[in-house]
Every structure is written in structure tokens, then in C-alpha cells.
Design a protein that fits this description.
Length: 349
Amino acid sequence: MSNPFISNKKIRALYFSIWFFISQAQVLLLTYFLNVKLLNAYCDSLVFNFLYMALGLSFWFTVSFNSLENYSTSKVFINHIAAAVITSGLWILIGYYAIINLITGDKVYSDFLLKSLVWRFLIGILFYTVIIAVDYVIIYYNNFQEKLLKEVELKALVKEAELKTLKYQINPHFIFNSLNSISSLTISNPLQAQEMTIKLSSFLRSILSKNEKQKNKLIEEINNAKLYLDIEKVRFAEKFEFVEEIKIECKEMEVPSMILQPILENAIKHGVYESLDKVTIKLSCGMEKEYFRITIENNFDPESIPRKGEGIGLKNIRNRLKLIYNQENLLTVQKDTNLFKVNIFIPVG
């Protein structure tokens, strides 16, 4: 990690500004409380503060070397005590010889300078402690931010993996049902089996080409869904009809990919398959408050015995909506006397 007091403009400017105010405060202290001449006070402040400001820039490397992750707390503490003593001693030594060569022939100031070396040494220890503490705060803040970023990236990867897992669960579920239908038709109606195989191939080619996309335009999802319904039409002929009422503003709306097909499959399985009468599957979409509402409804025979299934279709859609939009209850199911309705709510914006 580079030294932020050198590489970061804002931190560097703040660092120099603080030393400027310290030097001005020292001038006031020397002139008004210790009766040092103004020129001597400025020279004293400039020499000692500039020296420590320059030394303070190097403390970053001392802190980086004495990391609590690499050494025990006691060893780090001892190292810093030694460094503080050596640094303060070096600061006093260089500053003393620089100032006596700069200010000559003033015995009063020379006596003051000698008497002040002890408290200057203690101030040097204080400066060291404060700068080291700030360095550690910066290091651990940066480490904390890096950990947060890594956690966010990890959560994003986990979320993406979960979404892909849910999406890939849907595809085999449909494929197995289609293959079972084709298997049945090979004996009873080979031509229909051939037609269904070709349509299934087109459908799979379509969804595989877009499998990496988490979202598609609603109109694209409807076209994919129609491919699926074409496959089922081969099997059920005129036993069901598909009706759509899509408002213009809905067509370009982005929705999770492969979100309609499992619901339509559910309508075929529990509505068309079990009903003796013609079933109407209706797809509609419109605005409702801050959501686009997509509704898929179908009538069914209330006298029929419900077919048992794994129930992964609607459950997966609910989980995918929750993962993508971080909201609960974006999928609702309503079942009346002979009408089954699924509502999907897509947040706007």
C-alpha cells in the first residue's frame, strides 16, 4: 500500500495544513508566553516543525512494517517505543545544530534553546504517537474497505450462482416433460412427434443463446413462450388457446429471463391436461402503482383430481425475483372456483 501522505492529494494537503497551524501556534507561544523575539520564534518554528513534518512522512513505512498481523502486540509496542525515542533524539539533535547555526550571537535564545530540549523531546514523542495512530487508522480503514468490497463481490458471485442454479433447474424440468410427450407421440403419431422434436430444438436453441442473460425484454420472453406453446399445441391441438393483452409500455420492459415458460407449463399441466373443456390461457400486462404487473391466468376443471408434481416452477420464480430485486412477495397466486391466476410484479426503475 502506497504512502497516502504522498500519493493522496487530499491527505497530503491536510497533513501540510496541520503542520502549518502547529508552526503558527508555536510562534504565538514563543513570542507571547516565553518572550522570544518574533524573528527567532519564526526560525525556531520553521526549523523544528519542518524537520518533524519530513520525518513524519517516513513513519508510514514503520507502521507498515510493524503490522499487528505480522507481529505480537508487545513486540509492536516495544518497536514503536524505540522508534519514538530514536526519532525524537534525532529530531532534537538535527534541529539544535541547524538553529544555532541559523541564529548566532543571541545568548538569551541559546540559553532558552538548551533549557527547552527536554520538553521538545517529549513533544517529539507526542508527535510520533499521534502520527503513528493516524497511520494505523488509515491502514485499518483501507483494509476494512477492501474487506467490504470483497464481501460485496463475493455476495454478488454467490447471488449470480444461485440465480444460475435456479434458472438451470427450470430448463431440465421442461425438457423432461417434452421428451416424455415426444416418446408417447412416436407410437401414436410419429409425424407429430417429428414436428414436436423440431419445435423443441428451436426452443432450446433460443433459450440457450440467451442463457447467460439474467434479463430480457418482455416481448422477447413472450416470443420464447410462444415457442413453448407451439410445442404443446402439437400435443393438445385445439384443447387450449393463448390470448395476450399487452400494453405498449410493457413490451420493452426488462424481466428475468425464462420467467413466463414455467407458469405457462403449470397452466398446461394443471389446466389443459386435466380439463375436458377448452382452456384459455391469458397473458396480460399493465402498470400498477410502482410496478409492472404481469398476469397469467387459466381456467381449469374444479372436478379434476390435482396432479402431483415437484412444484419447483413457481417456487424458483419467487426465489429468482427475490434475489434479483431484493423484495418479497413479487409473485402472488390466486385460485378461485375454476380460475387459476399468477401475478408477477416487476419494480419500475
